[in-house]
Structure formats: structure tokens, C-alpha cells
């Protein structure tokens, strides 16, 4: 897959395009991408995703939007689905002020090379989000492109959206978030040195610092996880997200992962953690013995859930 960013964008008149942030590449996004890839194959076009960085709401609202996927994670997930061209538009105030008509003619057509566009049922674009399906269908015959619309994607009684997945993860519901994503939520980063207290109580942990400070951290609690080293097998484990209230009263939020049946030095190494399910709330214990007893129960619960996941494959 080719990746084109900012000045490196080259016009390709065979592009079958779907534009959007696609944060998370969840089930709704996947439905659009599957159609995009199939449609491009039918017409001999290039399946192309046009995305934005930073997140448009970050520019428009003036505060950071927690990301479900970094730009590289997004690209990897889209490539796995068959996307051949990944175009990143630097999102700015000037871009947000373009009229919908100018966005279509000057960006999607003149700059990207769109011949056909695939959108979700509620896709909006351009200044004040005035652009919609009706506008595209009106502009298409005039400017020489066709329009395909994917209907709303519903899982149970919930419309699948990045906002809903963020809400679920912030609440700690990693299991339901995984259902809407179509895979476990992944948290990747580098292992950094902590206070090494875990090894003194039999539960050494890897402190993971996310590679992008915008990456969403699940809500505080203890989780069953499966971790991946760059040069090794997948490893079961459990993860604590929180402030370690048993030992600190005002500590910063940390992400600490204990790997089952593994020993070694992880400092400075990349670690990807798939968050499978939440085991319990984070809470304060009256002493180390009570904490270790609970960690023993957590480990048993995590191993059981990992076995269930493996058995269900």
C-alpha cells in the first residue's frame, strides 16, 4: 500500500475514494472498506482512503481527541483489508473552512484524483458540515464522478461508531468495545523503567508508555490481556491501569502489564497489548498481603478468560 502525506500526495485519476477519519477501523468502517475494495476491483480502480491528521475535532474544538488508532495503526488495519492507497490530509483551520463544493473539486478531484466516492450514510464534510450525500449526488454528474452510499451499521441496538467505542473503553468495557471493533483494542508502546515494586511481591510488571500521547488509555482497572513482543510469541497476562492507590495517594496514571510464564528484561523494547476484558476496579488494599491475595485471584481469572478466548477460536 502506498502512503501519501501532505506535499507527497500525487493525483491518481483511477482512485475509488472513501474519505473520513476512520479512527479505530471498527465494524462500520470495515463495511465501507470492504465495499470500496470490491467496487474498485469491479471498475478497475485503486481503492483509496483519504484520512486526516490531526483528528478534525481536535482542530475544531481546540482539545485533544483520544485516538483508538494511531496513524500507523490505522494504515496497517486498512492495508490488511485491501486498501492500496492511503492519503493523509493535514487537517487545518483553512481546510475546515473550505466550502463543500471546493473540497470536492479542489481536494478530492484535483489533488487526489477521485473517479468514484464511497461514503457512509451520515457522511458530512466541508465548512459547517454542509456537504452531504445529496450534494455529492448533485455534483457527481457535473464533475464526472459517481457516488455509492453504505447504510448505517448496527450491532444489537447500537450504531457502531468511534465515539461509542471510546465511551466503552473509558468505562472499562473492553469486551463490548472489542465486539464493535471486530478485534480486541490494542495499546502499543515502549517499556520504561518503573519503581520495580512488582517484582518484590511476585508480580513483576512492564510499564508501558504509549507511543502517541493522544492514544486512548482504557478506564482504570485490572484487565486480562494478550501481549505481543516484536520478536516473540503472544503472551497472556493482566494489566493494571490506574494510580496504584495501595502505594501512592496522588500518583500519575500508569499502564502496568504482568506477563504470565515469562521472564526477561523488557526495558526499552516495544510491546503491543490486546485488551480482552476487564476483571475488576482498581482499589486500595490494606497492606501488601491483601494486595497479593487479590492479584492471585486476578491471575486465575485472567488465565481462565484467556483459555476461553483461545478455545473459542
Description:
With 313 residues, the chain is an alpha/beta fold. Helices cover 33% and strands 28% of the residues. It contains 9 helices and 14 strands. It has helices at residues 27-43, 56-61, 71-80, 93-96, 100-112, 133-143, 162-170, 174-181, 288-311; strands spanning 2-5, 15-19, 46-53, 85-90, 114-120, 146-150, 154-155, 158-159, 185-192, 206-210, 221-229, 234-242, 254-259, 270-280. The protein is elongated, with a radius of gyration of 22 Å.
Radius of gyration, in angstroms, nearest whole number: 22 Å
Regions with pLDDT < 50 over 5+ consecutive residues? none
Secondary-structure content class:
alpha/beta
Report the β-strand fraction as a percent range: 25-35%
Number of helices: 9
Largest sheet: 6 strands, parallel
Whole-number mean pLDDT: 92
Oligomeric status: single chain
Proportion of residues in helical segments? 25-40%
From the N-terminal CA to the C-terminal CA, the straight-line distance is: 29 Å
Number of strands: 14
Strand arrangement in the largest pleated sheet: 1-4-3-2-5-6
Which term fits the overall shape? elongated
Please write the string of helix (H) and strand (E) elements.
EEHEHHEHHEHEEEHHEEEEEEH
Amino acid at each position: 500500500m502506498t502512503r501519501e502525506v501532505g506535499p507527497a500526495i500525487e493525483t491518481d485519476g483511477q482512485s475509488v475514494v472513501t474519505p473520513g477519519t476512520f479512527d479505530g477501523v471498527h465494524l462500520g468502517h470495515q463495511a465501507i472498506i470492504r465495499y470500496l475494495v470490491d467496487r474498485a476491483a469491479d471498475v478497475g480502480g485503486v481503492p483509496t482512503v483519504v484520512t486526516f491528521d490531526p483528528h478534525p475535532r481536535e482542530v475544531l474544538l481546540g482539545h485533544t481527541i483520544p485516538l483508538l488508532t494511531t496513524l500507523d495503526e490505522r494504515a496497517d488495519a486498512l492495508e490488511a483489508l485491501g486498501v492500496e492507497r492511503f492519503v493523509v490530509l493535514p487537517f487545518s483551520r483553512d481546510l475546515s473552512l473550505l466550502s463543500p463544493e471546493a473540497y470536492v473539486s479542489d481536494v478530492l478531484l484535483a489533488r487526489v484524483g477521485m473517479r468514484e466516492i464511497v461514503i457512509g450514510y451520515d457522511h458530512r464534510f466541508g465548512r459547517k458540515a454542509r456537504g452531504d450525500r445529496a450534494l455529492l449526488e448533485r455534483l457527481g454528474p457535473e464533475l464526472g464522478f459517481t457516488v455509492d452510499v453504505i447504510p448505517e451499521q448496527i450491532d444489537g441496538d447500537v450504531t457502531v461508531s468511534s465515539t461509542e467505542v471510546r465511551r466503552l473503553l473509558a468505562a472499562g468495557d473492553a469486551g463490548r468495545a472489542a465486539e464493535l471493533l471486530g478485534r480486541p483494542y490494542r495499546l502499543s508502546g515502549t517499556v520504561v523503567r518503573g519503581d520495580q515494586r512488582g517484582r518484590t511481591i511476585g508480580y513483576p510488571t512492564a510499564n508501558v508508555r504509549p507511543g502517541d500521547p493522544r492514544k486512548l488509555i482504557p478506564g482504570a482497572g485490572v484487565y486480562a490481556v494478550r501481549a505481543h513482543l516484536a520478536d516473540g510469541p503472544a503472551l497472556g497476562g493482566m494489566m493494571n491501569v490506574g494510580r496504584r492507590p495501595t502505594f501512592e495517594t496522588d500518583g500519575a496514571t500508569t499502564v502496568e502489564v504482568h506477563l504470565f510464564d515469562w521472564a526477561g528484561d523488557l526495558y526499552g523494547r516495544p510491546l503491543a497489548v490486546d485488551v480482552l476484558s476487564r476483571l475488576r476496579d482498581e482499589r486500595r488494599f490494606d497492606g501488601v498481603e491483601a494486595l497479593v491475595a487479590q492479584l492471585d485471584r486476578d491471575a486465575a481469572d485472567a488465565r481462565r478468560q484467556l483459555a476461553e478466548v483461545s478455545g473459542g477460536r
